Amino acid sequence: MLIANKSSETILIKAFDLGLIELDEHHELNELKHKLQSYSANKNIYLITLDLRRCYVEYATTYIFLDESIQLLQQSEIPEKKLIIKFSIDLNSSETMFQCFRACKALHNKEVNDKNFSEKLAELFSENNIDVSIYTYNFNSFEDSDIPENTYKLE
Amino acid sequence: MNGVTPGGNQIKPWPELIGWMPSLLCSYDAARDAINKKTFSSIHLDLSQLQQFDVIGLSVFLSILAKINTTNITDYDVSLPISVHIQKKLKEIEFIRYLELLGFVPNRQLNVFDNNHQNLTVSQEDIDTEETNGADIYIEKIIVIMPNKAVSREQLLKETKRQIKDFLLLDSNRHFNHEQILLILLEMAKNTIDHSGKPAILGLQLFKHAEGSGRFSFVYCDIGDGIYKTIRNIFKRALSQLTNKTGFHTAYGLQKSELAQLAHKAALTDILYWAFQPGNSTRRDSGVNLGLGLRWIIEGSKKCNMRLYLKDASSILNLTKISSPYTRDGIRQLSIRTCAPVLFFYYGELKC
């Protein structure tokens, strides 16, 4: 289900409801990217929620839609913005969970390496006033009201 | 075919190939070494006494066979199981096809007892030989991953993912975390393609009981050298390229003295400790390899309550007992030296 209209300040994308279950395949990745691009005219976005529960993802390609999300929030005129990502997978640490941003083009000019990745990513978010949280859920969780099992944030 | 006496180096599996342990009970080293060293060129795969198997046991057994250099084999016979039930099961699982994929194309398929048992009947023992443990649903599959210059990395991963996803769909009520399982198995497949370059055999097994409990198990066998031998060999080559007496190998982040230590004196514990550190990878040039795969395998397994074992060189360790930050002592404590042949595989089990 896509819950938003183009003048709204909140975007919620539930990928499973859109039929975008295989977000490890280029076709569905690009569909999600295009869905996000359709909001590019909106300068008042303050929250993007990407609900990727029950979707297959591959960390080598998550940048395809995460770059779009970052770009939407960067160009927003709202002072403080938020990005929430919901997963069914859990890799047990913030350092690992945030690797989904590793290949993002938004980091290309920051001379990122394995040791400074978390620091540079935090810097990117801070420069753009974006608060990012990754929530992980029980693998059968699907409701908006479900409580996450873990919350990961960059320190 | 009747009356032919099979000859050559005989390889006979343990009669009850259930789980990964029985495959390691028999020593096939002599036959394998004789063939790999070109001492002999014939092999007799004697399955006549096979009475039970599951895909876990069969996959490990296949990986043992796959270590034989088949280019030296000119004469190869297979004796099928005496048990009609087991013959049927092997046919259902397409065992002969997997053998052929690994280079074993038999000259002859023999029923050794053709002359003496013309009217084989299915015995009650055969019918009772079911490994379902009372489960209502019992599904098994073998997937062979064959790195091949003709097939791109992306295409091979896509095909592998498709097969794994199709298997997971059989768990229609989602008793298990499909997304996490795929992530873990895919990291193993990437390691095969990026580091090993040799075939891998993935055996998948799903039990679902009527009352709701169940078990998902897998064994992932990589026919390559394994982490220990591969990394040591790479370090030896890297060391030989450092021409200065003192030097720093930038790709691996090691001083020359450290590199020398790892190349020549490292135990499995030392190599695994290096491999488990984030960013350490011997194949960063693949572009998409972030050097995190092993950590993801371990942490992903722990987080979904999977029991995960690693067999490398001659040792076995329970990876899900390792706590981060990984230490040499922690890895050493969990590592158990065995008399088993040198093999590399992961075994994972999830219960619900």
Explain briefly what this protein structure is.
By secondary structure, chain A is an alpha/beta fold. In chain A, 25% of the residues lie in helices and 21% in strands. Chain A contains four helices and eight strands; from the N terminus they run βββαββαβααββ.
**Number of helix segments of chain B?**
12
Shape of chain A: globular
Unreliable runs of chain A, pLDDT <50, ≥5 residues? 1-7
N to C succession of SSEs of chain A: EEEHEEHEHHEE
Largest interface: A-B, 27 and 26 residues
Q: Can you tell me about this structure?
A:
- The complex is a heterodimer of chains A (155) and B (352).
- Chain A has helices spanning 26-37, 63-74, 94-97, 117-127, and strands spanning 2-3, 10-14, 22-23, 47-51, 56-57, 81-87, 130-136, 150-152.
- Chain A has 155 residues and is an alpha/beta fold.
- In chain A, the strands form two sheets. A six-stranded mixed sheet of chain A has the order 1-2-4-6-7-8. Chain A has a two-stranded parallel ribbon with strand order 3-5.
- In chain A, helix 1 (26-37) packs parallel to helix 2.
- Mean pLDDT of chain B is 82; it is low at 1-7 and 111-131.
- Chain B has a seven-stranded antiparallel sheet with strand order 7-8-9-15-12-13-14, with helices on both faces. Chain B has a four-stranded parallel sheet with strand order 1-3-5-6, covered by helices on one side.
- Chain B has helices spanning 29-36, 55-66, 84-92, 95-101, 124-128, 153-168, 178-196, 226-241, 256-264, 268-276, 293-303, 328-334; strands spanning 9-11, 16-17, 42-46, 52-53, 75-79, 108-110, 137-145, 200-208, 214-222, 248-249, 254-255, 307-312, 315-318, 335-337, 344-351.
- By secondary structure, chain B is of the alpha/beta class.
- Classes of the chains: A alpha/beta (155), B alpha/beta (352).
